[in-house]
Structures are given as C-alpha cells and as structure tokens.
Amino acid sequence: MNIREKNYWLGTVAKPATGASGPLPDKVDVAIVGGGFCGLSAARVLAQRGARVALLEAESLGWGASCRNGGMVLTGMKLPVPTLIKRYGREAVQRMYAASLESIDLVERIVKEEGIDCNFSRCGHMEVACKQAHFDDYAAAAARIKSEFNHQLRIVPKNALQTEIGSHIYFGGMVDETSASVNPARYVHGLADAAHRHGACLFDHTRVTSVSSQRNGTGGSFRVETTRGPLTAKEVLLASGAYTTSATPALRKKVIPIGSYIIATEILPDSLAAEVSPRNRMIYDSKHFLYYYRLTPDNRMLFGGRAAFFPESESTVRESAELLRRGMIEVYPQLRDTKVEYVWGGTLDFAMDVMPHSGKIDGMHFAVGFAGHGVGASTWMGAKLAGVICGDPDDNPFSRIAFPGAPIGLRSGNTWALPLAGAYYKVLDWLT
Ligand SMILES: Cc1cc2nc3c(=O)[nH]c(=O)nc-3n(C[C@H](O)[C@H](O)[C@H](O)COP(=O)(O)OP(=O)(O)OC[C@H]3O[C@@H](n4cnc5c(N)ncnc54)[C@H](O)[C@@H]3O)c2cc1C
Fold this sequence. Notes:
This protein is α/β, with parallel strands linked by helices. The chain has ten helices and 18 strands. Flavin-adenine dinucleotide binds next to helix 1, strand 12, strand 16 and helix 9.
C-alpha cells in the first residue's frame, strides 16, 4: 500500500491553538515541560488558581501522543484487578479505580465548562475476546469489578455479539457503558485555548534543554534553559510523557517508549458504519499485542495497534499501514475494498510495572506511564499535580507506589531490546 503519513485528527481542527510569541518571562511560579493533555490540564488549573505559569512545548501544542491517539476515554487501568490488588492492596486499588472513573468525569466537565467542541460522547467501550479462554474469564472479572468497586460491566455472549459489532471472529465481549470517546486533537486545542484564557502563557516550539536546581531546603528555584532562552521557576512540572528527553535524565531512565500506529479509512456509507459498529463503541481486543478501533465522528473506521514496537519513524509508519489494513480485514472482511486514507504513529509511555506514576523526581513534579490509557488519566493527573503545587493535600494513589526504572535496552534513547519485548508478547498471545 502506497500511503504517506497523515494524522486524521489534525485535519479536523478548525483553529489550532498556537503558543505566545516573544521572549519568555524571567520568572514564573511554575514551568511546565510538555504541552499535551497533562501539561495543558495542569496549566489550566494553575492559572485558574492564580499561579504564573509558563508551559514549554518543544514542537506544536499537542504534538506528542495527545493529538495522535484513538480518542478512547477509558475506565480502569491496563493491568487486571487481581494483579493490582495483589500488588498494592485493596484500599489503594479502590482509590485508583475511582480515579479512573473520576478522570472521565473530569474530561466531560472540562469540555462542558470550557465549551470545547470535540465530539465527547459517553458511548461506552467493549473488550472483545480473541479466544474462548479469554471470554471464560470475563464473568469472574466483571464480578470482581462489581464487588470491589461497585461498577457494573455487561457480558455479551458470542450469540449476541452482532448487536455490538459486525465481526464474527470473536468469542464474546465485555461492555462498560461509562467510557467515552473524544476527538483528541480538538480536545487538546480546546484545552490549550482554555488554559490561555485563564492566564497561562503557552510557548510552542520551545524545547527545554536542561533544568538545574537552585534550591536550598524548601526555598529557591529552578533555572530552566530552553531554545527560547532561560527562565527561573519556583516549581517545575514534567509532562513530557513518552517524548521525555535527556534534559531531564532521571525521568527519562524510567520511561519505556513503545510505538503505536493507527490507520483511518475513507468515510463509510451509513449502512456499513452501522453494521461494523452498531452502538459506536470504543473497541479493543483481549491480546497483549492488541488492536483497538472505533468509528470517527464522520464514520471512518479508525483502526490501531502495536504494529511495530519501535517508536514512530517513516519506515515503521509505512509498514504499519499494511499490517493494520490486514488486521482490519481479518476483523471486518466487509472492509476489504475500503480505501485507507490516513496512517500515523505515536509513542506510548510505559513504565516497567505498566502503571501510571506521579510524584517528585530531582525536586520536580512529574506524571508519566499512561501507556494506552492516558486521555482521561493524563488530564486528571495534570489537574491533580496542579492542586498539589497550589497546596492541596496529595491524595493521589499513583504518587505513593514504587516507580521502578526501565532496564537498559528498553529505555528512552536506548531501545535496542524493544523487538525482543515485542516478540515475547507475540509468543505470550499465542500461548495464552
Ligand atoms: C497511537 C496512540 C494511540 C493511543 N490511544 C489512546 C486511547 O485511545 N485512549 C487513551 O486513553 N490513551 C491513548 N493513548 C495514550 C495517550 O495518548 C497518552 O497517554 C496521553 O496523550 C499522554 O499525554 P501527555 O500530556 O502525558 O504526553 P504527550 O501528549 O506525549 O505530551 C508530551 C509533550 O512533551 C513535549 N516534550 C518532551 N520533551 C520536551 C522538552 N525537553 N521540552 C519541551 N517539550 C518537551 C513533547 O513534544 C510532547 O508534545 C494513545 C497513544 C498513542 C501514541
């Protein structure tokens, strides 16, 4: 397939938010590194609460994962609940799960309060089972989620699956009506507009090249060097996700950057769109090397997956287009003759323990590790960190858990072992 990289979402943004022109302020209360959901959400809250904020984004606002994702605003976390409870205990996991539900409410509230036109919709999500054994586990998983969190999921057996999805390859599904969908690029630009309106200074095309602490005890400040000149900040918030650079080496050592890729087709006729996704759910499958897919608001099939494990490059994007098209046709043979018009890639920020993390590193606040579950979580985490900086008690359950480093070979900037990790998960999918 001969197709060039083009991100569908970016073409839907009527008026992209741009950063301020001119020099940086000499001094601010908070410097934020990174202008995705996390940084922008934090900037919005900090500005609302009267802090002087400079957000510094190396590229355009939302350039990272935030404008590249599937726009699925999902409940829960990546890991299964029993694994989480075994690791962190019931009480902590209850608070984590509650945070995942709150994060969807928060996105909904921001969209409403700030009047952001981004197709936010509580359409629900469905996980589909690729094997009978996966489906057999759904009843116990749903029962555990009901008993631990009082949250209701619905099991859909294979003989009823046609009401949810126009595909015959799955063994059943599990629906969560609470999840939502959004156009991520419109959301990011609406969030940027809102942060700006509340008084945050947003600087795009401003790369942070180093941060040094001039702190002593509780006082002092940070000197932040950027490609637009230096500035001094009382607090620094790192919201640089998978794209974290050597400007903040301690955080970079924690991040495993993993590529994820998406194709989008031409607009489907209404009848075909209704056939492939009758309830317009956000859908993902039960594999480690999973596919995730949905209809766009204008009825294209948007189909994503970890077609290559390496972060995006011209060649991984090109190869992914063909792999994903084949995957899409396995799921939906009826899309065999449908033209693929868009392909793009992005990088997920995994932590070694597959958990989101926040807290302080080298004296700076950070939030990272959202993996493929970050639309709501990064918005929530940004707002939460902003609150802590303004003096709120830190009740964030993700700031209390240990944050393991990434092994050499999987770390950002040094990812030679990623294909091995990819192969491991492919074998795991075959075996389990
Ligand atoms: C292909 C793909 C599909 C996904 N699908 C979903 C989905 O459907 N649902 C879901 O919940 N999540 C999904 N995710 C994950 C979600 O997009 C992310 O978790 C979320 O966007 C993270 O936001 P963020 O603000 O932390 O990071 P980002 O949006 O990545 O922003 C970080 C920013 O920091 C900037 N930066 C880095 N270093 C510097 C520096 N030194 N100076 C200045 N700026 C710097 C980068 O340029 C970047 O713009 C997906 C991700 C990808 C890549």
